[in-house]
């Protein structure tokens, strides 16, 4: 397959493979895909709870997070970090801790910023979700789904 790629692309792939960077770039690509899917799920559920069922934004945020947790864990376990060797139970427990911690930071900052700014609740939630994603990737890669050393 590499022979069909332009020479510059092939050279870049060779350099990345030599540096062991293909794995991290692949993980980042899957993380972004799964994370965007989970964040969209979170946002859509939360906004739907507010607009359709007239739920308060903070409760709607909790409901959105609970649904998005399932999307996020499933995607990261099966796609982003599929080569990890932790059991489903260990990975799920660790990911729940990371996700719940991220949610606590999310909810506290969301409550505070809803109170002290005039930023629309939906835009504010979107910004906070993006900020939490960086922390989640780092903790997921290096703790939740890390490879066991034999």
Strand content: under 5%
Distance between the termini: 32 Å
Helical residue percent? over 70%
Class by alpha and beta content: mainly alpha
Low-confidence stretches: none
Count of DSSP-assigned helices: 5
Judging from the principal axes of the Cα atoms, what is the shape?
elongated
Largest sheet: none
Q: How many DSSP-defined strands?
A: 0
Gyration radius, to the nearest Å?
Answer: 18 Å
Order of helices and strands: HHHHH
Overall pLDDT: 88
Helix-strand blueprint:
Layout: H1 7-18, H2 21-51, H3 57-80, H4 88-116, H5 121-144
Helix pairs in contact: 2-3, 2-5, 3-4, 4-5
Question: Explain this structure to me?
Answer:
The protein is mainly alpha-helical and 150 residues long. It is built from 5 helices and no strands. It has helices at 7-18, 21-51, 57-80, 88-116, 121-144. Helix 3 (57-80) packs antiparallel against helix 4 (88-116). The protein is elongated. 24% of the residues are buried. The mean pLDDT is 88.
Write a brief caption for the model.
This protein has 150 residues and is mainly alpha-helical. The chain has 5 helices and no strands.
Keywords, separated by commas or semicolons:
mainly alpha; 150 residues
């Amino acid at each position: 397959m590499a022979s069909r790629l332009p020479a510059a692309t092939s050279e870049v792939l060779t350099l990345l493979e030599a540096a062991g960077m293909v794995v991290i770039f692949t993980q980042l690509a899957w993380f972004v895909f799964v994370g965007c899917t989970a964040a969209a799920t979170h946002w859509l559920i939360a906004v739907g709870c507010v607009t359709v069922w007239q739920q308060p934004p903070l409760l709607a945020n909790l409901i959105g997070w609970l649904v998005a947790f399932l999307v996020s864990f499933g995607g990261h376990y099966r796609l982003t970090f599929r080569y990890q060797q932790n059991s489903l139970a260990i990975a799920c427990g660790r990911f729940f801790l990371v996700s719940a911690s991220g949610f606590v930071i999310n909810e506290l900052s969301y409550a505070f910023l809803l109170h002290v700014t005039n930023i629309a609740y939906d835009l504010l939630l979107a910004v906070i979700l993006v900020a939490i994603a960086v922390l989640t990737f780092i903790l997921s890669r290096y703790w939740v789904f890390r490879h066991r050393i034999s």
